[in-house]
Structures are given as C-alpha cells and as structure tokens.
C-alpha cells in the first residue's frame, strides 16, 4: 500500500512539474518583451531619479575592529578561557 501511495505522489509531482514547464513556455508571450523598458515606462524618465550615492562619506559609519572584543567583559573572559583550554 505504501508503494502505491509513493508512486501516486510521484506521478502527481511529475504532472505538476510538467504543468509548470508548460506555463513557463507560454508565459513570455503574455509578458512584455523587455521588462526594463516596461519598468522605465512606469517609473518615468531617469532625470526624476534620486542619486543613490552621496557626495560625502557617511559620518555616522564607524570602523569596527574585529579584534577589539565585545561590550560584555564576561563574554570576553569566557572566550579567553575557552581559547586557553584549547591550547
């Protein structure tokens, strides 16, 4: 009985997969040829776009030192003890 159930599920998956393949084959005929042109038409001209790169570097960004440790001294201490135990 379990074998029949597995085989029927396999058959269903294969049919679903074939249906998805057919849908993908027929989908481009329904969609616009160039999606970038379609997006540009809906967004408007490029002159309206906002410049994503600022002229000055971000003053709030900080350089993080990965060897500086954590803000929790107990965590730093337990990490040191774990390293010492391994060595």
In short:
The chain is mainly α. The protein contains 3 helices and no strands. The chain is 60% helix and 0% strand.
* pLDDT averaged over residues: 74
Give the biggest beta sheet.
Answer: none
Question: What is the chain-wise order of helices and strands?
Answer: HHH
Q: What is the count of DSSP helices, taking H or I runs of 4+ residues?
A: 3
Task: Please give a structural write-up.
The chain has 87 residues and is mainly alpha-helical. The protein is 60% helix and 0% strand. The protein has helices at residues 2-30, 35-43, 73-86. 0% of the residues are buried. The mean pLDDT is 74.
Secondary-structure map with pairings?
Layout lengths: L1 H29 L4 H9 L29 H14 L1
What attributes does this structure have?
3 helices; flat; 87 residues; 60% helix; mainly alpha
């Amino acid at each position: 009985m379990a074998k029949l159930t597995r085989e029927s599920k396999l058959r269903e998956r294969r049919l679903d997969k074939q249906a998805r393949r057919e849908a993908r084959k027929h989908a481009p005929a329904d969609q616009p040829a160039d999606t970038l042109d379609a997006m540009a038409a809906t967004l408007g001209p490029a002159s309206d776009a906002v410049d994503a790169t600022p002229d000055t570097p971000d003053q709030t960004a900080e350089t993080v030192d990965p060897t500086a440790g954590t803000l929790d001294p107990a965590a730093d201490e337990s990490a040191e003890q774990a390293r010492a135990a391994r060595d």
